[in-house]
Design brief:
The complex is a heterodimer of chains A (131) and B (81). With 131 residues, chain A is of the alpha+beta class. Chain A has four helices and four strands. Chain A has a four-stranded mixed β-sheet with strand order 2-1-3-4. The longest helix of chain A has 27 residues. Chain A is elongated, with a radius of gyration of 19 Å. Classes of the chains: A alpha+beta (131), B mainly alpha (81).
Amino acid sequence: MFDHAKKNKALAVIGGLILTAVVAVPVMAQRDPAYEAARSSGVIGEKPDGYLGYVTSPSPAIKALVEDINIKRKAAYTRKAQETNSTVEQFAFTSGCNLIVRTVPGEKYQTPSGTWNTRDSSAPVRDSRCP
Amino acid sequence: MAMYQTRQLTEQAYDAIRLKMRSLTTAGLIFGTLTGFSACVQVSAPDKPIVINLNINIKQEVVYRLDGDAKSLINEEADIF
């Protein structure tokens, strides 16, 4: 009987944690308005290697913003690479494949040949290894 | 007079040597050209640019394996992606 109660309690705690994670994350994680503006104006764009790049020569503010995000991205890639037993470059590249797909029309992305394209409604030009 | 004759003889000898050298050069040139043509390997420049792929260590199968984890990371940390 006690075991049963214990089990229920544990389940409730786990359920609560999952609920918190699901509800809290989308609220917490939002793009900085300056970052969002730089993306939509086409000053910066997504590169195939999983990091942000400059489409035009950046202002000091944009440069600082991109460097900060790229450092955070690298930290995230490094953590995930360890978890998945892969290299940082491999995980970053896979993320790059996804990030280019997720660009919305008007945003910039870099093709494998190095040119910057503006995303439109058609599929983006990506590396042949992208899923 | 003797001086003139000597000079003429020398000139004749030189002419003979020159003629011989010329024919040897011509023969050499013909021989060289012929062997050159027969042993020539035609190499044409490729019409496509040569691309050296530095990302050779990233294999498609790895990308496919990591795809799910990459997607969840992008969703988890949406502020930096």
